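#lab-general

N.A. 3:47 PM
ok so I finally got the sequence cleaned up, no stray characters, all 192 residues accounted for. can someone with queue access submit it? mine expired

B.Y. 3:52 PM
send it over

N.A. 3:53 PM
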Amino acid sequence: MTRRENRGGRRSPRLTSKLLVLCGAVRTERQYLGALRSHFRALAVNVRFESEAVDPVTLVAKAKRWRSRSPGAHDEIWCVVDVDQFDIDAARSAARAAGIKLAVSNPCFEYWLLLHFEDFGGSLPDYGSAVRRLRRHVRHYEKSAIRFEDYADGLGAARERAERRCQHECEHQRNPSSGVWRLVDVMDGRGA
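B.Y. 4:20 PM
back already:
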């Protein structure tokens, strides 16, 4: 990350990266990632979010349209998707061909949230099982009302746990896993 000195000798951030993040769900991912952006407010990343309840292939196609309408407007474009019942291989192939990055959670984004509290590695067959386990830690969890304060203290642990489970973009194949840590690194100014 590029930084510059200010008069007080402290380093201050300079805008170095513009991200477009498209989420495959209307609220949950956008609420969490929007609050995360605020959490990293002093760092040098400008993030714009778009959300729509669509399958991963459709989301990647939408990201490609964004890129073609505004070439060069974003340094990176990310799609945040769940495996759920979708075939992620087609989305991965289309994203790779278009230079779009994926943050895949298997089976769902709630597994990423769960990693803020525990290093769970057992199988999660579906969204419902992930939510039941998450509610052991966040009793009031509601998909449409994410409170980042519930997760902030566990962010570093979640990142480490997720990376340990799947370092080489294998999230679409490994249940449970989440590649959201890669996007977190970019938003934090650590990733590339």
